[in-house]
């Protein structure tokens, strides 16, 4: 799991806090996550070891290493009591550690791609979460400012030529999710200000996620990766319907050359995977590849 690229690298945390996801059957699904009990100290660099293995195993084929997006450290309900005076102090320390983890990764895999996953923004557009934050004295506008600053700060020192991407995940555990809502309220800041080469966005359920209009704010030089193939359901999407969705998004962003396509998330963000069999997973990956070939591959030949 991408979070373990960070939390397995530090001391001062334990698992014991429970968070709640929601599924299509209207059920709550609980997951035990990390909580901070002491000031963090780096004690390992597991992602660097994994990157070193990948360098040998892939023989030069591109791969990426994924870390948590620093803005998630600023979640107002993060438990830091007894370890830090505030969530902000915790986030500052976590970002410093994550920068070192990045240096460790790049020391063994200079040409890797870096992806930062599960930023705070889906919480900041979900009406239920916004109500909770505001009720506890956390203005959403201030949280957006802090999140943008954190997701920018972590990139400090990354050399030019290293591709950096941000995956805007809405939660992915046993075919359930955590956040609903259109990204429209934060899109101009996120897609227009953050200096990432690519944004991977979940749009597998337009009823929950809103339409594609937010892509119009995509900054020059960046790519919007459309996560329109679901990893949560075994239902195989219709290829023509996916092509129509890509056309709609291209109309907002100014051309198909600014887009890419992918599954919305992983098929198993944790050891317990989603409710989807292996054969269907392969068919969905083949579907993504087929769409990409129809849009970009054949036009390039």
Structural notes for this entry:
The mean pLDDT is 90. This protein has a six-stranded parallel β-sheet. It has a three-stranded antiparallel β-sheet with strand order 2-1-6, with helices on one face. Strand 7, helix 8 (206-209) and strand 8 form a beta-alpha-beta unit. The protein is an alpha/beta fold. The chain is 40% helix and 21% strand.
- Count of individual beta strands: 9
Largest sheet: 6 strands, parallel
Q: In angstroms, what separates the terminal alpha carbons? A: 38 Å
Order of helix and strand elements from N to C terminus: HEEHEHEHHHEEHEHEHEH
Broad structural category? alpha/beta
Strand order of the largest sheet: 3-4-5-7-8-9
Radius of gyration (CA) equals: 19 Å
Which bin fits the share of residues in helices?
25-40%
Hey, roughly how much beta strand do the residues contain? 15-25%
Tally the helices: what do you get?
10
Shape, please? globular
Instruction: Kindly report the average pLDDT value.
Output: 90
Task: Identify the notable features of this structure and list them briefly.
301 residues, alpha/beta, 6-stranded parallel beta sheet, 3-stranded antiparallel beta sheet, 10 helices, 9 strands, globular
């Amino acid at each position: 799991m991408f979070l373990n690229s960070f939390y397995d690298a530090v001391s001062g945390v334990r698992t014991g806090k429970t968070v709640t996801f929601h599924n299509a059957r209207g059920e709550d699904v609980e997951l035990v996550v990390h909580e901070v009990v002491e000031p963090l100290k780096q004690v390992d660099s597991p992602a660097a070891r994994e990157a070193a293995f990948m360098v040998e195993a892939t023989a030069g084929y591109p791969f990426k290493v994924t870390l948590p997006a620093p803005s998630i450290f600023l979640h107002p309900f993060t438990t830091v009591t007894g370890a830090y005076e505030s969530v902000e102090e915790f986030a500052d320390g976590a970002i410093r550690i994550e920068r070192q983890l990045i240096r460790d990764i790049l020391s063994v895999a200079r040409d890797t791609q870096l992806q930062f996953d599960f930023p705070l923004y889906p919480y900041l557009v979900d009406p239920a979460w916004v109500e909770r934050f505001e009720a506890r004295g956390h203005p959403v506008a201030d949280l957006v400012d802090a999140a943008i600053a954190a997701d920018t700060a972590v990139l400090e020192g990354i050399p030019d030529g290293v591709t950096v991407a941000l995956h805007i995940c809405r939660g992915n555990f046993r075919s359930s999710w955590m956040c609903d809502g259109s990204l429209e309220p934060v899109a101009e800041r996120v897609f227009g200000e953050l200096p990432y080469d690519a944004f991977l966005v979940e749009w597998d359920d337009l009823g929950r996620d809103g339409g594609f209009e937010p892509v119009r704010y995509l900054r020059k030089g960046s790519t919007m990766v459309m996560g329109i193939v679901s990893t949560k359901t075994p239902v195989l999407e219709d290829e023509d319907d996916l092509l129509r969705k890509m056309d709609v998004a291209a109309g907002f962003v100014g051309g198909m050359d600014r887009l890419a396509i992918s599954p919305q998330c992983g098929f198993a963000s944790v050891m317990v995977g989603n409710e989807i069999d292996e054969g269907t997973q392969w068919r969905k990956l083949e579907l993504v590849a087929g769409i990409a070939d129809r849009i970009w591959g054949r036009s390039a030949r």
